[in-house]
Amino acid sequence: MEQHTQYALLAISGSLRKASFNTLLAKYLKHIAPKNLSINTMTLHNLPLYNADEDVSSSPESVKFLRDSISNCDGLILVSPEYNYGPPGVLKNAIDWASRPAFNSVLKSKPVLIITASAGPAGGTRANAQLRDTLAGTLSRVVVRKQVAIGTVNQKLEGNRVNDPDTTELLKDSLNDLVLEIKIARLFSREN
Description:
Elements: E1 7-13, H1 21-32, E2 37-42, H2 61-71, E3 75-80, H3 89-98, E4 111-117, H4 125-136, E5 141-142, E6 148-150, E7 157-158, E8 161-162, H5 165-191
Parallel strand pairs: 1-2, 1-3, 3-4, 4-5, 4-6
Antiparallel strand pairs: 7-8
């Protein structure tokens, strides 16, 4: 990976729990990222439910902040638990807000990495797949790679750190893949 080009990433946690494994993972990414990556983290506590009547010229401030944060980053990371075989409603809601105006939103052509984690052994693979489907409708550039689904995440965390070397390596590799997707997106935008 090139060390001279700086990339700004935004990691959004799909969990509202205070002791969320996914929020911890989103924050942990900063500690394992190469020096040329800056990663800001965000939770979705203040976002109202999507209502097209409120999505007019003056959207709620929390929505403006979400859209501006996504617009200003080079790549987006969604870190999500799995609830009832899918992503939490709060994360789907955030995607709905960010996806407007349709087919010309801040998500259009935005490189996105999906990470899911759960205490179950499958690590949120169903939520991972559903997020990929949802993002297809936003015209995002979802990173094509083996799913980043971390099973038994509760056993792989110690304090604010991941204590499992294989999980750390998987997260590092996924960040490298996101940077590669950012580079491809930039090349593609220059050609068009």
